[in-house]
Amino acid sequence: MIELELPWPPSVNHYWRHVSIGGRVITKISRAGREYREAVKQIVWRSGIVRQTGAIQINRLLYCPDWRERDEDNTTKAIYDGLCHAGAIDGDQFVCSGVVEKRKSADGRGRVIVQISCLDKGVIVKPSGAWLM
Prior knowledge:
CATH 3.30.1330.70, two-stranded antiparallel sheet, single chain, five-stranded mixed sheet, alpha/beta
């Protein structure tokens, strides 16, 4: 199992940016999203972990930076994309399971503890993703 401490991610509402070009709306990763992906990449590279391939489980322990209402699923996309961009995992389509806990940070600093484990029993892995049996 691999364990990493990541910074608090931007919510999915701030991860994407919609730009109108010539009457067409294009969806891009926002500056906050790109900065988060880069921060995760630096953490993964410094940790020296090897890419986890195939079916995986990702547990997330969310230490919220304050008492505001937060949906844990609003953090998922940025975390998984950051790990994929950093080369820690093949892609979020290979995440088959995971547990999420949400807590208030005692020090007021938001962060996420991520635990990545490989799954190998009862899993079908295809190029398009992984499925538990």
